[in-house]
């Protein structure tokens, strides 16, 4: 296999008395879809947050293209082309969908106005309508604050945002959890299209059929540690469940 | 309540309106001044009303003056809370045709107003120092409580107090001049701390009526009533009660009623083109437990409403 | 630690629990250090029973106000009206006493009636606040800023803006400046209020609903808690305690102190937050609030005793406020999140 | 079929310019599991909220045991044995799991202390540990505020709460969306056990296999209206999807 | 409405958008009604250019403060220090002028230098606040309550508590009380500040980040907005405007007005909230804030002109505050949620 795009080793993260990560590792290869699965509380969300700079690990190292990196914040990761859909979505509830899609990357008007930071609201809104349509999401009122959207609509906003800006890896923490059947299909299509564009996707999901349908590889986290890796084509649902519940351990993470 | 009341009969009556702008509407000193002005106005047949803010506060008084200006009264007597800030608004007031009498506190520009009427505050401070020296036999530490250091009258009193001590009573030392705000509570709270800070304390001088009201309470709360001598400027009802009750030993009192009367007289003179007295100093009295009931000092005792 | 048998996490949990209980630890240390420093600098003046007593007495009224404020802030509300309600209640109390018997020393019945009237006045203002907050959904800051003006204005109208000083001497000499068994009355009252309030917040259903409402009002409503009624109760409690503070204030200063109290609200809020209660609601302790009252009080007294110019006190209280909360935050952040 | 336990007709609900419910109906029979399905934004969550008193409909009627009822708030519905797991969970984040489980129904100490409202914290905690264990959820720190729990752990707290108190109907709005494979199985088991106890369950889910596995009946909502009802045994995945997307309409709601 | 072609929702959306833009409509009506009533009662005194001008002038300083406060509150913060920073900046400005040239009428250069020093002083306090809020994560209420004390104390120390009245007459007569083309300088400055601020909040990236941070700080940080820097900028803006207000105050009152300004912070906050800005952040308008300043100002002036006892003004302002926000809430609730 190729050189890993992103390789994390020996990550530890403790919250008070709770050890969320206990020497976890994780690998992403270029242009693949890799699923990260595990029981509730296994540490998946925490792991993702450490990999995208939203949380700093207590210990451990992250290699990007083989070189160690440290992220002071999500901004650092984004600059390197890494985007994230968080499990709790993290939208600005008082802003509308378009404003959220462009948040932190606003388009400004040309010329002098732009120099003063005057926004190109219209351009951004038009672009947003198109982006949401691609995901099969119809917003009845594009100017409504996202606080008033349905659960699935909100999730779509977060997904559209991450995909729009990622150039290397997109992390999606249970992106389809609240989606309808149609929208779920669109997101899985989107993930495949993103991969074809050469961008890797990390998909966290509790839906095993979905995982097996879209992922190239699967990594399994249990009690804060990576316990197994599979090629999706070579594994079965039962094997995945066994790994998650501890009935089967194909590898045990090196101690940090 | 508190607004216009008019006479209607009396002498040169032509029903002109006169407005009083107090420095602190709740202070017995200004209430008494209002009573004097009101009585005089009604005697002369002029309309009278009073305004001002409940606190010693520059912007509030400025906006009060502005609103008064809109009403275009014939005459205004005002006690400016700041020597500079009020100059502009009062000039505007004058240029709109209103005659102005400056009472009690003063402005930096001494030419504003048709007359300036107040006690001789410097002398009052000296009087306070003499009284204090007598009470404590000329030796020990004293502290001064004052609302702030931005008011012309209280500053003059403190200056007089200091001058007199340094020239006549070398044994008396001022340990602290403390700003406690123009409230009784501020003064009351400060007393306990001052007692702890100055174990050798023998006397307290308070520079106006609000601080004077608080000091008695403060001493009572710390159980030092009587053992610390207190000389207090002004003679509001609570101060008089404290004097009678022994918490305070002497009051240096002004004649606010007279200030109010005379200010109205001068305004009416100006309005009727009679000669005006440009500067007037009113009397001060030193009140102790011995003379507090004398009829001669009765006019130096302040009121908390005009009917009493 | 492994996710093994429940006994292991239980032990750890207890430890954590205990540590969380010590949210107020740091601020308490600040208080101790201040006392130690001032005592060392002026043992003769500061480290005396007289001074400790006077700090305790001068703080008692603010403690009573701040305890009520604690409950309000735990619901994620705020009560800016406490200072005005204090003054209004004092006016009602003294007016009632004078109305029933205008002699300088009326009987105990009259004094009690006046005190009760003051408490009732406070309670009614609290209910008024609560109704606007809970039923009309006006933000608490606005409601209580409005009440601040209304109550103060009415107090001034009732008195024509002139302090009423005609306070019965039996009240002034007992509750106002007297002692029981050597402990000042004001302190006794404050300690009782603190003890009851701490129990109520920590161990009762009332306390739990207060936290729940502050944590997530929507969630509380959805499980069937009558959020509106509970909020009214909490504001009523704050009003009642402001009324009590008003009666104490009247007794202590023998005056209605009409023009004071403008800063009482901010002082009470500062005490609550200094004591570790979150302005976002859901979390808070009564004991912390008490510490939060004493830090500025000790600074104030200590500085006066050291004869530092009073302006420096203002500066120092401000600086300590920021620093104490900062170190407390630091410690908490280190202990848990991120 | 028996008399409906709960029958709603002609419900309308408008938010600003958005019509979330447009004459929707919904029926629950005693002792059944009924799934409520529909696309994102179809109005499912809004419908549930109107049925449990959390939102008042602009129009329409709700019959309980054939008699019209109006709920002034969730409290009214709860008093009649109706409990809810909301899509946004609605937990008090600063309180611990046990406090949330008993929120609004605290146990007090016996005797005088109880009269003053003093809580029986210990009793409630012990009961909670058992309730969570039944759901296969392990909380590493039972005293931690629920704000610090993982997504699935929080969902389990909400589920445990509703099941503990329901005597007639439990509404669950996407209860398994964030759950792991194991926990999802437990919840489905729990739903069946609840039904066997005689309590009806309304399950909202976008997971069709799950719906078909556990539901007795399925009702489909589309654009704020009920468009189809099925017996689960007689239908197929494709038929459900067709109904949701509007490709198939078996019934069209009576106009309100 | 159907979920048909996008054109239909777009039209509706525009309508809704417009309605939302009118959040401040109700409060504006309240203001109009007040003006109408007072004008009808005393057309000779109230409905005059003189009176309107005076209200505009007397409100100008508060407008400048409240505009800064609006940005802070939209980030879900609060700035209690504005009144103290105002005074501190005034002191720095006049001290600078006097230091450079102590004659009563120094040259324009000196006046400008003093003004700049005042602005700088305000800006520095704002940055100070911002750093503690954004970097040290101390709650804004605490930071700015601390700064309130520190800035005020230092201003008093700098002046020994004595108002500096030595304000150059060129400043006092121009900016302080002069006019350009018949419009008072103070009003001109306030209008400029309002216009720029409204544009910044509504149309620029700076404004959008301000809302985003107030809406969900975590979310803003996760999309890469430098929340800490942005917060520092917002508090710096509030400080800068307080500094400007300080210079205007100095010019207008020819004095440092050391003992005033204690209520400035609450007045500014009331104006912001009266203007429809949410204390929970994320939502707000500058124009609303301006209306929020004028309602109490009009009440105040109207009552004084009607010679209503000043205490009733306090009551009325409080009552209008609650009622105006109440009706605004009602209207909004009817329009959207639940
Ligand atoms: N901010 C926090 N403070 C304290 N504990 C935390 C925090 N975040 C996570 N934890 C704990 O760390 C553990 C792992 O949480 P995490 O959210 O990473 O799990 P997860 O694998 O994403 O679970 P799920 O599938 O339920 O989303 C949990 O026990 C959780 O309670
Ligand atoms: N409080 C609200 N204010 C404004 N609009 C709302 C509100 N709640 C819901 N809506 C709108 O009503 C419609 C239905 O929302 P609802 O949450 O009921 O959908 P849902 O079927 O539960 O969708 P999902 O499967 O995504 O959870 C959506 O268009 C949503 O934007
Ligand atoms: O003379 C006045 C009087 O003493 C009052 O009590 O305070 C202010 C003084 O100007
Ligand atoms: Mg997770
Ligand atoms: Mg939903």
From TrEMBL, chains A, D:
InterPro entries: AAA+_ATPase, ABC_carbohydrate_import_ATPase, ABC_transporter-like_ATP-bd, P-loop_NTPase. It comes from the Bacteria. One of its GO terms (molecular function) is ATP binding. The keyword Kinase does not apply. Coiled coil: none annotated. Residues 6-248 form the ABC transporter domain. SUPFAM superfamilies: P-loop containing nucleoside triphosphate hydrolases (SSF52540). Keywords: ATP-binding, Nucleotide-binding, Sugar transport, Transport. PROSITE patterns: ABC_TRANSPORTER_2. This is Simple sugar transport system ATP-binding protein. It comes from Kitasatospora kifunensis.
TrEMBL record, chains C, E:
It is found in: Cell membrane. One of its GO terms (molecular function) is transmembrane transporter activity. Keywords: Cell inner membrane, Cell membrane, Membrane, Transmembrane, Transmembrane helix, Transport. Its main location: membrane. InterPro entries: ABC_transp_permease. GO terms for cellular component: plasma membrane. It comes from the Bacteria. It is a multi-pass membrane protein. It holds the Pfam family BPD_transp_2. The chain crosses the membrane at residues 24-41, 62-88, 108-128, 140-162, 182-201, 268-299, 311-328. This is Ribose transport system permease protein. It comes from Kitasatospora kifunensis (Streptomyces kifunensis). The lineage of its organism: Bacteria, Bacillati, Actinomycetota, Actinomycetes, Kitasatosporales.
């Amino acid at each position: 296999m190729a050189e890993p795009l992103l390789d994390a080793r020996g990550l530890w993260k403790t919250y008070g008395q709770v050890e969320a990560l206990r020497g976890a590792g994780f690998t992403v290869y270029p242009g693949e879809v890799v699923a990260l699965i595990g029981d509730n509380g296994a540490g998946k969300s925490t792991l993702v947050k450490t990999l995208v700079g939203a949380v700093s690990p207590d210990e451990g190292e992250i290699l990007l293209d083989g070189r160690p990196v440290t992220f002071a914040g999500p901004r650092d990761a984004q600059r390197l082309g890494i985007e994230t859909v968080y499990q709790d979505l993290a939208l600005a509830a008082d802003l509308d969908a378009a404003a959220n899609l462009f948040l932190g990357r606003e388009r400004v008007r040309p010329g002098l106005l732009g120099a003063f930071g005057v926004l190109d609201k219209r351009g951004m809104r038009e672009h947003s309508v198109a982006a949401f349509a691609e995901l099969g999401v119809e917003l009845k009122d594009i100017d409504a604050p996202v606080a008033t959207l349905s659960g699935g609509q909100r999730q779509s906003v977060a997904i559209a945002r991450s995909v729009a800006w990622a150039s290397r890896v997109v992390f999606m923490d249970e992106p389809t959890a609240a989606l309808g059947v149609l929208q779920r299909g669109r997101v899985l299509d989107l993930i495949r299209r993103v991969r074809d564009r050469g961008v890797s996707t990390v998909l966290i999901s509790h839906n095993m059929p979905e995982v097996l349908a879209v992922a190239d590889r699967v990594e399994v986290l249990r009690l804060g540690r990576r316990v197994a890796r599979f090629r999706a084509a070579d594994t079965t649902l039962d094997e995945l469940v066994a790994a998650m519940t501890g009935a089967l351990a194909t590898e045990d993470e090196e101690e940090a | 309540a508190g607004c216009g009341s008019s006479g209607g009969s009396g002498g040169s009556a032509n029903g002109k309106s006169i407005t009083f702008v107090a420095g602190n509407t709740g202070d017995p000193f200004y209430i008494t001044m209002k009573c004097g002005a009101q009585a005089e106005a009604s005697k002369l047949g002029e309309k009278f009303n009073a305004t001002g803010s409940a606190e010693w506060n520059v912007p509030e008084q400025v906006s009060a003056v502005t609103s008064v200006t809109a009403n275009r009264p014939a005459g205004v007597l005002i006690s400016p809370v700041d020597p500079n800030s009020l100059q502009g608004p009062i000039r505007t007031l004058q240029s709109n045709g209103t005659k102005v009498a400056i009472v009690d506190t003063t402005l930096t520009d001494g030419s504003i107003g048709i007359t300036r009427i107040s006690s001789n505050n410097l002398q009052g401070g000296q009087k306070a120092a003499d009284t204090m020296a007598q009470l404590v036999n000329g030796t020990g530490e004293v502290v001064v409580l004052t609302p702030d250091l931005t008011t012309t009258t209280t500053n003059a009193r403190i200056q007089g107090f200091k001058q007199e001590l340094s020239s006549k009573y070398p044994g008396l030392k001022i340990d602290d001049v403390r700003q406690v705000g123009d409230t009784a509570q501020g003064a009351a709270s400060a007393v306990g701390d001052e007692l702890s800070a100055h174990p050798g304390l023998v006397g307290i001088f308070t520079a106006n009526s609000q601080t004077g009201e608080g000091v008695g309470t403060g001493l009572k709360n710390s159980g030092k009533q009587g053992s610390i001598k207190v000389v207090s400027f002004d003679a509001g009802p609570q101060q008089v009660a404290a004097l009678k009750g022994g918490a305070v030993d002497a009051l240096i009192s002004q004649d606010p009623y007279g200030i109010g009367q005379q200010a109205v007289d001068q305004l009416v003179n100006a309005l009727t083109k009679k000669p005006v007295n440009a500067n007037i100093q009113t009397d001060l009295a030193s009140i102790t437990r011995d003379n507090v009931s004398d009829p001669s000092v009765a006019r130096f005792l302040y009121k908390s409403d005009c009917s009493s | 630690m492994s996710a093994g048998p429940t006994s292991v996490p239980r032990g750890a949990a207890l430890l954590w629990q205990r540590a969380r209980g010590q949210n107020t630890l740091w601020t308490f240390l600040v208080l101790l250090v201040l006392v130690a420093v001032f005592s060392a600098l002026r043992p003769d003046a500061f480290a005396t029973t007289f001074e400790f007593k006077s700090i305790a007495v001068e703080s008692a009224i603010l403690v009573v106000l701040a305890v009520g404020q604690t409950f309000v802030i735990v619901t994620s509300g705020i009560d800016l009206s406490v200072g005005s309600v204090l003054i209004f209640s004092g006016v009602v109390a003294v007016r009632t006493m004078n109305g029933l018997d205008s002699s300088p020393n009326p009987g105990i019945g009259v004094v009690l009636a006046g005190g009760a009237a003051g408490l009732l006045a406070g309670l009614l203002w609290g209910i008024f606040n609560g109704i606007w907050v809970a039923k009309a959904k006006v933000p608490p800051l606005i409601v209580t800023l409005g009440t601040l003006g209304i109550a103060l204005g009415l107090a001034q109208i009732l008195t024509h803006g002139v302090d009423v000083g005609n306070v019965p001497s039996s009240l002034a000499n007992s509750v106002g400046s007297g002692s029981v068994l050597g402990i000042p009355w004001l302190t006794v009252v404050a300690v009782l209020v603190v003890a009851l309030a701490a129990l109520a917040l920590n161990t009762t259903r009332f306390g739990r609903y207060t936290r729940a409402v502050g944590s997530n009002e929507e969630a509380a409503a959805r499980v069937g808690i009558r959020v509106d009624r509970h909020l009214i109760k909490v504001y009523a409690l704050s009003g009642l305690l402001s009324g009590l503070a008003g009666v104490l204030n009247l007794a202590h200063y023998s005056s209605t102190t009409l023009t004071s109290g403008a800063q009482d609200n901010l002082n009470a809020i500062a005490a609550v937050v200094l004591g570790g209660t979150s302005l976002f609601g859901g979390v808070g302790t009564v004991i912390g609030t008490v510490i939060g009252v004493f830090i500025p009080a000790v600074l104030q007294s200590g500085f006066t005793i050291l004869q530092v110019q009073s302006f420096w006190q203002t500066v120092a209280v401000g600086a300590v406020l920021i620093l104490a909360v900062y170190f407390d935050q630091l410690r908490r952040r280190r202990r848990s999140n991120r």
